[in-house]
Amino acid sequence: MTLDDALRQARDLVATLEAMKDAPADEVTSPAGPASGKTLAWGARVSATFRDRLFWLCDDLGMAPDDLMTCIAWESGRSFRPDVRNMAGSGATGLIQFMPSTARDLGTTTDDLARMTAEDQLNYVWKYFAPYKGRLRSLGDIYMAILWPSAVGKPDSHVLWSQAQRPTTYRQNAGLDGNRDGRITKAEAVAKVAALKPEGLNPGNVWSER
To answer: What is the pTM of this model?
Structure first.
């Protein structure tokens, strides 16, 4: 089943529930229940179709929608554009900054990803995270799956890079070393990303179901 197939099934279910809501009480066998009142960090910055696909993706893979949206906000520079490119010239592109080699592994290219709509690119976000299904229970682990997958599931104190053992990688990411001790931990790498989550819940950025 593709993401689009699943969304069509979800829309059919919504239509059924709406019909049940309008039926006489003695004809309803399974009430729809109260509105869920869902919200989504940064959800006001994307389309309804994008939100639907993201909710489905997160439900399928066991991820918190607010956390994934926060990571996308960080990776895309708050733009949520499918064609946004890494300013350092790495070739990374799109919602979660797919590297060229990653795009090839997913059966596409960064140029093709850049030509997609943001909504369609979510299919590749789903494919990218699928191997981690059930393991991405925190914002930190979602971000690690993007930045440094070997750290998924590791404690916040886990050292990603140190000046002694990985001098080049450490130097490239030295701005993340909050306490300047020559080591960058998972918690330090995640801190700036996590700071975007409250911003995404501010009026103008947050989406609320009505």
So the answer is: 0.81
